[in-house]
Amino acid sequence: MVAAVAAIGEPRTRTLLREAVRQDGPALAAAALLSALLLFPLFRAWWSAAGVVGLRQAMQVVLAHGQSWFNPGPDSWWYGALVRRLPGLRTQNGEQQIGVGILTTLAALVGFWRARHRDGIVVLATTALVLVVLTTQLGPWRMTSPWALVSAVLPGANAIRAVSRVGLVVLLAWAVGLALAVDQAGRRSTWAAVGLAALCLLEQGVSFAHFTPADDRARVDGVAAAVSRGCAAFVYTPPPDGWPPWRSHLDAVWATDTARVPTLNGYSGNAPPGWMLEDCFVRGPEDQARIDAAVTDWIRRWHLVGTVCQVTRGHPL
User: Fold this and answer.
1) Rounded to a whole number, what is the distance in angstroms from the first to the last CA of the chain?
2) Is 198 exposed, middle or buried (0-12, 13-18, 19+ CB in 10 A)?
């Protein structure tokens, strides 16, 4: 939508759009109709979920801050130490760590500036700039962001939790700007272009978490093996394992594919009302009583039929 408005606002691109609609109007209309039909099942699922969990309040939304666009995260090879030291950066969560580095940012901006006479570049740069402004918190309160207006006007916008993930969309603009800069440098010197590209590539380096798929597969299979085929559903409530509860929830969700039995566990950016199983760990009798009460209430709330089995440990591996 933003790109369409930007294209209409530019006289030369407006002429190109008018010509495209004149020549390919029926094909564009057919593609729009087909896209709507393909999206309709997703819309129905969203509408059903929204009816159960509701939409989000302003305080639940994660917006970008000004420094978010320069924050590559604490795991960055080059900027990690600085991010961990500065209070304004180290307190930002993963959704707000959307910077691409100083050199890459400057190179992309220079690339855009030197190609500002190209119609498509103007539309792309304008779109990226508008998205950044719309999704950035401009003051100490969330309501100071233009996103407050967007969420009030645009249907479905107030269902989005991590608005700052628009940084993934803006990456398209950064990539094009950097490509333009490398192309422009290559006209002067091949080595300059190679050097710029290599430095910007290295600037993206991070030391990130990793895992061994076989270990996760074995753990999930262990949970599935402990689920009886006679269960109408199961809930996985292991003892603490040094990880946050979300990993055990995800193990249970994956185990449903093998066990062919649904689970009461789950993990998402939202939870249905009355679901009191966020902490699925059993550390002692108090936790067991809490989970038993939550499961009993869930069974009664949704009129579940059959036996809901409690799996406390994965099958010995």
Assistant:
1) 52
2) exposed
Instruction: Find residue 162's DSSP bridge partners.
Output: 62
Q: What phi and psi, each to the nearest 5 degrees, are found at residue 139?
A: -150, -165
pLDDT at 142 exceeding the cut of 80 = no
CB under 8 Å to 177, separation ≥6 — which residues? Answer: 107, 108, 109, 110, 111, 112, 125
Distance between CA atoms of 99 and 88, rounded to whole angstroms? 14
Residue with tokens 């449903």: 256
Q: What is the mean pLDDT of the chain?
A: 91
∠52-53-57 over CA atoms, to 5°? 145
Its pTM stands at: 0.81
What tokens does 176 get? Answer: 């094009």
| Residue 316 banded pLDDT, cuts 50, 70, 90 | very low
CB proximity list for 150: less than 8 A, separation 6 or greater? 134, 157
List 263's β-bridge partners, or say none.
234
Distance between CA 291 and CA 296 in Å, rounded? 8
Please provide residue 62's backbone torsions phi and psi, each rounded to the nearest 5 degrees: -100, 110
The gap from C-alpha 270 to its chain's centroid, in whole angstroms, comes to: 13
Domain residue ranges of the chain, discontinuous segments joined by +? 2-28+54-203, 213-311
Task: Confirm if 230 and 307 have CB atoms less than 8 A apart.
Answer: yes
CA-CA distance, 53 to 157, in Å (whole number)?
15
Secondary structure letter of residue 272 according to DSSP: -
* d(C-alpha 138, C-alpha 136), whole Å: 6
Radius of gyration of the chain (CA): 25
pLDDT tens column, 144-197: 788 988 988 888 888 888 999 999 999 999 999 999 999 999 999 999 999 999
